[in-house]
Amino acid sequence: MEVRQTPTVDEVSQSRHRGLVGALVYMFERLMPDPFVLSIGLTAVVILLSLFFAPNSNFDHIVTSWYKGAFAILAFALQMILILATGFAIADAPLVQRALRALASRVQTPTKAALLVFPVVSIAAWINWGLGLVVGALLAREIAKRVKVDFAWLVAGSYSAWSVCNSGLSSSIALSQASHGNALNLVEKATGHVIPLSETIFAPFVLVPTIAVVALMMFIFIRMHPASAEITQFSEAEVVPDNDPHARASNTNSFASRMERSPIGTLFLLAMGLGYLGVQWRSKEFELDINTTILIFLLVGLALQKTPIAYADAIRRAARQTGSMLLQYPMYGGIMGIMSGTGLASVIAKTFVAVATPTTLALWSYLSSLIITLLIPSAGGHWAVQGPFVLPAALSIHAPVARTAMGVAMAENVSNMLQPFWAVPVVAIAGIRIQRVMGYTAVTFIVTLIVYAVALWLVP
């Protein structure tokens, strides 16, 4: 007679976790197309919504707004690509690579992988979102080379840890409201005052959920790791070899080769960049914005790579990871143009604001932001669309302005877990299909949705 052993509570719990995540992974793999195809579908959906609900929805206005938005975003697109490329060059430097390998060498189990990835990536992302993206993807690859771990789970964990970036020092919404004269400082334009970072990213209602999300998702990801038989490991064979046909042999002693390997070019650029930062600092006009961030990343990367040719090679490797972004940004710029040009964004935002009170406006701002973020994934562009409606509402009903603004930023953290816009460079660097990763980050979306909402509601 066969004796059937009763499963333990822990085994049942793990089975349920695997079943939930397995179903989400299956759903995303079967239903979610390539991000470029998805952006085309989202464009069509926005056009239909505009035709039914927007005040300026005639054909001429829609196509004109789409065209203007697609090309208006090109400067921002290049800025974002440069942030990723310069961040990649830092993470690609031998010193940083040795540090990542040293950290990865300490990992023997999936649990230890999560315990390492979440704090390291979240700190990097809190400092700068571009650095967090690159460090997360490369650290995941280094760990996966050494440990039997599900690679999609690991990449999804690093992306989930990165999600706190809009609550950190590189939050475009917080930085713009703290920057005098910034084009997106809508608070200063309306009130004549700026909002210091002490009232936004360093305020308890932002810091508390940021720390809680990292700790909670680290624990949840440990519990979500697939069973040994279901693991899909990292494969070196899937990584494109670095065969640059234009690369010059490093052992040649020609004049060109000596110039490439000389640190003189690096020192010249460092002098120029540091000189500019010094002038700005001395004149008290220094502002940590996108361009300054790119410059700092460039200078740090040059210093770490040491020679011009080493830095150029690192950027060439980074360029292979940014190709898909060249298609993504114009498509979302077109969506942004339609949303703002037809008035659809204002219709969505005003619908939520109409039912708000001084106590609940931040929460309604957060909820409306969740929807708009799925269509406008750029925090800066998003604030340009939603800020002009939630900010006057906050001033008119005397609601907390800083909390209302950060409600928009915190929703960016949440919706990014379902919006593939920022996941594209992560999966490109890691070398994995985005659909498997999004199955896991859907869980992050659900959890962080609740955590940030509770913080906006209850944390002072």
From TrEMBL:
Any one GO molecular-function label of the UniProt entry: transaminase activity
One family name in Pfam for this protein: SCFA_trans
Keyword Acyltransferase: no
UniProt entry keywords in alphabetical sequence: Aminotransferase, Membrane, Pyruvate, Transferase, Transmembrane, Transmembrane helix
One cellular component (GO) term of this entry: plasma membrane
Transmembrane segments: 36-54, 66-91, 113-139, 201-222, 264-281, 293-311, 332-355, 361-377, 441-459
Sections of the chain in a coiled coil: none
Keyword presence, Lipid metabolism: no
Protein's name according to its UniProt entry: Serine--pyruvate aminotransferase
Organism whose genome encodes this protein: Caballeronia glathei
Lineage, uppermost ranks: Bacteria, Pseudomonadati, Pseudomonadota, Betaproteobacteria, Burkholderiales
